[in-house]
Specification:
Layout (H helix, E strand, L loop, with lengths): L2 H17 L5 H6 L3 H29 L4 E9 L2 E2 L2 E6 L13 H7 L15 H8 L8 H12 L3 H10 L7 H13 L4 H7 L3 H4 E6 L2 E2 L5 E6 L3 E6 L5 E2 L8 E6 L14 E7 L12 E4 L2 E13 L8 E2 L12 H17 L26 H16 L8 E2 L1 E13 L3 H14 L6 H9 L13 E8 L3 E9 L3 H16 L3 H25 L4 E4 L5 E4 L1
Parallel strand pairs: 12-16, 12-17, 13-14
Antiparallel strand pairs: 1-17, 2-8, 3-7, 3-10, 4-5, 4-9, 6-7, 9-16, 10-11, 12-15, 18-19
């Protein structure tokens, strides 16, 4: 490059440095004192370095896709949740003799065909029943365990520490477990027939001060509680707060049908859940006792998640079983499918809604085969550790119900005689036939204590017709990022949009200069031949 070229390029860059709006650079070029030049150079390098650090932190935060949560209150009519309840006695005593013999023996290991509550049993039989030794003594089973101890395996050792058959279970729990093993072998149709019927249990039902009947409910089958009934309808909408405008249920538990060796008290299991979702009364919900009126006030919380880059969530959709997707049901179904596929047995917590006819050929993992028990334990452990590969994100739009409970002793004698017994006896229920005969003879002298254990009431309502809305929003959008970038540039080096325009202008000038220089370098001098055949350059 010729000296003139250098001076021209140098002039372009010098002009930029002396006239740019970026702070610090003009001071470096125009200062006459070398000390001040070095000072301004150091200051500019420090501020520019901190600028780079701040810009990195800003974009790192932006690309982590943070969210902000806002909470607001909305006022409108509220869709009433689904309410599912199950009698905690899954099997009616009057139906026990219709069940398979193995199931009867699970309730009475001493005497085949004897069932608790059989008045023909003597006191010795009762003592034998309750004092039966439930320690597991199967020698073949124990040999299999000893074989595993001889070949150490961390998973097996962990399982045996938690579930070792060498340590006996509580006798009552052992009895219930043995019953469940046989009860789960029944088909859904059998469990429905052997369990409590809604028409026998429901004494009174009202919603928003209007009567409701059994047509408002649909039936499901639970592997632990048998018949369950769900109140669910798009027509049930709460427009006013208070217990008068919610659901009021009075139930007859049919305590004379309870198998007392199977249940320790009278009551129901109740679950409040989002409509069209699967309830899990075995692991969630509350227990309601007889002789009690339970009041449950609800508040609705709507949660709206962003999804996409801002978090994993899934929009609700109707699954093959006709129910809406929920994370709980997805996790349970994923675990069930993995246990069935890898362990070749049925998991203990399989629900009626996911039970398929082809599963009948499979036995339950529990109490059947030690290898299958350990296999199920391994699947459960993998799910807890997140290694089971269950694609079960939360819902992008979810409804959550918070509950406040209170209760009182209920009913008093006058209410029981004048209302409850009149309603029950009008239905001609077999389980209440003897009590109704006495009641009809003399209602005023009827002893309420003989039937009061049968009844419970529950009131479920919204404490207010507002609901909380929790909404996720992006912490940064494009305008906020641009404003943050501009503020950072202005704070540390005084740059603005016009500063970048200056740079663009200089780039154009440098490009123009290089283009002219390149073109000049390619120019070929013209030659002229005169009359004397001499060549001369024409400049």
């Amino acid at each position: 490059m010729s000296g003139g070229d250098a001076d021209t390029l140098k002039g372009i860059l010098k002009d930029l440095g002396e006239n740019t709006s970026v702070h610090g650079i003009p001071k470096i070029l125009t200062s006459k004192n070398k000390i001040f030049k070095i000072f301004w150079l150091l200051v500019f390098m420090v501020t520019f370095g901190y600028l780079c650090f701040q810009m990195y932190a800003l974009f790192a935060d932006y690309y982590s896709y943070p969210v902000e949560t806002t909470v607001s209150l909305d006022f409108s009519a509220i869709q009433y949740p689904a309410v599912t309840f199950c009698n905690m006695n899954p099997l009616k005593k009057s139906m026990l003799n219709e069940t398979p013999l193995l199931l009867q023996n699970a309730l009475n290991p001493r005497k085949t065909g004897f069932s608790q509550g059989d008045n023909t049993a003597d006191a010795d039989d009762q003592d034998d029943y309750y004092n039966y030794d439930y320690y597991y003594q199967d020698e073949e089973y124990q040999d299999e365990i000893n074989e595993y101890f001889a070949n150490p395996n961390p998973l097996l050792e962990e399982y045996l520490r938690l579930q070792s058959p060498d340590v006996p279970k509580d006798k009552w729990v052992e009895r219930i477990d043995k019953f469940k093993v046989e009860y789960r072998k029944l088909s859904n149709d059998q469990r429905e027939i052997y369990g409590h019927q809604l028409s026998d249990m429901m004494v009174s039902c009202s919603f928003n001060k209007r009567r409701c009947n059994s047509s408002y409910f649909h039936h499901t089958v639970n592997v632990d509680y048998g018949n369950c009934y769900t109140l669910e309808s798009n027509n049930l909408v709460a427009r006013k707060a208070g217990h008068l405008y919610g659901l009021q249920l009075i139930l007859n538990l049919e305590v004379s049908e309870y198998i007392t060796s199977l249940t320790s008290a009278y009551g129901i299991k109740l679950v409040v859940h989002q409509p069209m979702t699967v309830p899990y009364p075995s692991v969630e919900g509350i227990t309601l006792s007889s002789r009690q009126e339970t009041t449950m006030s609800l508040k609705t919380i709507e949660v709206h998640r962003l999804g996409g880059n801002y978090g994993s969530c899934k929009n609700s959709f109707v699954q093959d079983n006709g129910q809406l997707y929920s994370q709980t049901s997805c996790l349970n179904l994923c675990l069930q499918q993995n246990v069935i596929r890898k362990c070749k047995c049925l998991p203990s917590a399989i629900e009626g809604s996911t039970y398929r006819p082809e599963y009948r050929q499979l036995s339950y993992c529990e109490f059947e085969d030690f290898k299958k028990m350990v296999c199920q334990f391994e699947m459960e452990k993998q799910q807890l550790e997140g290694s089971l590969n269950c694609d079960c994100p939360t819902l992008c739009n979810e409804i959550v119900y918070t509950k406040t409970l209170s209760s009182r002793t209920w009913p008093h004698d006058e209410y029981l005689r004048q209302f409850l017994m009149a309603k029950v006896c009008a239905k001609n229920l077999t389980s209440a036939s003897s009590a109704c005969e006495k009641y009809k003879e003399n209602p005023n002298n009827f002893s309420a204590s003989s039937v009061v254990d049968n009844f419970l009431a529950v009131n479920i309502f919204f404490e207010d017709v507002n609901y909380e809305v929790i909404t996720e929003s992006a912490k940064y959008d494009e305008f906020e990022v641009l404003a943050s970038v501009g503020g950072t540039l202005g704070l540390f080096v005084g740059a603005s949009v016009l500063s970048f325009v200056e740079i663009i202008q200089v780039m154009l000038e440098v490009g123009q200069y290089l283009f002219k220089r390149n073109r000049k370098g390619k120019t070929v001098p013209e030659q002229h031949i005169d009359d004397n055949n001499k060549t001369s350059e024409v400049v």
